[in-house]
Amino acid sequence: MKSLVAVVPFAVVLVAIACGDGGQPMLVALDAGHGGEDTGATYPVDAGTDEALLFEKDLNLAVIQELASLLEADTDLRVVLTRETDEFILARERVDVALDKCESQFGRACDLYLSVHHNGFEESLVDGPQVLFDEESDILFATSLHDRLSSGLSFPPEACSYSYLYTDYGLTQEDFGLPVHEGLISATTEAYFFTNDCEADHHLSGAESFTVCDDTGGCRTVTLGPRVQDEATAIYDAVASWQDRSQDDAQGKNDYGQGCELHGAPPLVLVQC
């Protein structure tokens, strides 16, 4: 539930899926949440910049880098990034940054916009996936993301030796106050709680190195665990699955989503198809 993450700075994933026009490759805009002075969640919780061992902004960027590599290997997809460095971009400006890049590089609007974040909470034993969405039209893609993350990541992480409380937070409907663009489907992935002791230990004992540079050219090395690759793969699978369904829908080959019912009310909405 969103009430659990009140201590975390603004966190959202906006996703828009559609088939490329006229058989063109799908344009995917990837956004690594937070950045620069906005660190996102920290481990330990509420640690200052000098005391924190891990920053959410770095994990977000690492996942986006891995995901971009997977997507770029697909000949049916093209990728732009809202940020490639440790820079601060206002949340409300990120969608427009993505659309401008798609227009300048490819001459048309983005088909998909995906921003990656990770949850946080003051209780370090809490963990579990959550996907947020804005409009009812977003819910099928949000469901695909949730299902892929839930099955593609192990909970708890391997070699967890701390007290651990798992909850599948499912789907949460919330108005993020972000710009709305016609044809965009939005959702939010919070794959797990960055502040969980087991999740943090997984990354602190990891051996995967990522280079993070700021907008002045200064660079540092961040070491994280293999969960970065696992998460990127799960999100890629969700994108590929949704792309296949979108193509079939455009050709009238299936009625995916028809007959689905929403149960409950914000912030928790369940889908039954």
Explain what this protein looks like in three dimensions.
The chain has 273 residues and is an alpha/beta fold. The protein has a single domain, classed as Aminopeptidase, CATH 3.40.630. It contains 5 helices and 14 strands. The chain has helices at residues 56-72, 94-106, 139-152, 197-204, 227-250; strands at residues 26-32, 42-43, 54-55, 77-81, 112-119, 126-127, 130-133, 165-166, 171-173, 187-193, 208-213, 219-224, 261-265, 268-272. Strands 4-1-5-10-7-9 form a 6-stranded mixed beta sheet, with helices on both faces. Strands 2-3 form a two-stranded antiparallel ribbon. It has a two-stranded parallel sheet with strand order 6-8. Helix 1 crosses helix 5 (227-250) and helix 3 runs antiparallel to helix 5. The longest helix has 24 residues, at 227-250. The protein is globular, with a radius of gyration of 18 Å. Mean pLDDT is 82; it is low at 1-19, 250-260 and 262-273.
What's the gist of this structure?
It contains five helices and 14 strands.
Q: List SSEs in N-to-C order.
A: EEEHEHEEEHEEEHEEHEE
**Helical content, roughly?**
25-40%
Tally of DSSP β-strands: 14
| CATH architect. name | 3-Layer(aba) Sandwich
Query: What does the overall shape look like?
Result: globular
Summed over residues and divided by their number, the pLDDT gives a mean of: 82
CATH class: Alpha Beta
The end-to-end span amounts to 22 Å
Largest sheet: 6 strands, mixed
Q: Main sheet: which strands, in order across?
A: 4-1-5-10-7-9
In the residues, how many domains can be counted? 1
Task: Work out the oligomeric state of the chains in this entry.
Answer: single chain
The CATH homologous superfamily: Zn-dependent exopeptidases
| Contiguous runs where pLDDT drops below 50 for at least 5 residues | 1-19, 250-260, 262-273
By DSSP (H or I, 4+ residues per run), the number of helices equals 5
Question: Roughly what fraction of the amino acids lie in strands?
Answer: 15-25%
Radius of gyration: 18 Å
CATH fold-level name: Aminopeptidase
Structural class: alpha/beta
